[in-house]
Design brief:
By secondary structure, the chain is an alpha+beta fold. Helix content is 21%, strand content 23%. Strands 1, 2, 3, 4, 5, 6, 7 and 8 form an eight-stranded mixed sheet that branches.
Length: 189
Amino acid sequence: MLAVVSCISISCNGKKTLQELLQEERKAIDRFITVNDLVILREYPKDGVFKEKEYFRTEADGLFFQVVDSGNGIRAQVLDDISVRFEYFQYVKKAATGDTTKYDFPYSPTYFETGYMPPLGQPYPFVYGISQTYSSSSSPVCRAWVIPLLYVSEGAVLNMIVPSTIGSYTDYNKVTPVFYGNLRYTRFN
């Protein structure tokens, strides 16, 4: 009964419910895919080669990714330190409505409310197999960046559409899906 009253009070004060926000997110991702003429694959390519607009969608997590370069063949091992860099990101909801702004992270002052501004070119580290390192309120590191490691190796370059449920701490809290352009795994050791 308390949950029903809470839901009604949330709806009455004009705020959207989590379910409504997740539905909006799904529609924004679908629109982003349509606007960009992306082809979604149900199975990972056997040869690991993606065509220009092909993206693989993971069944369990809903991550969409395209492998631009599969890397040097050195695969991540549990407890490896992994470093990630990316060229830019876009908020999927804005991009789906025609906003083509590409944010050159880390110089977008709106990305983190914390005001965290790392030095130019700083990689974002995490430890493969240690989930506590996949999320931080001061970094974009997220669970979504770990998932492709089952398919690619060191030096791999990917493009990703990341739903908020597997996104960064900030994206998760704001139910904001993000597109990462030219995300590169730069170090395994």
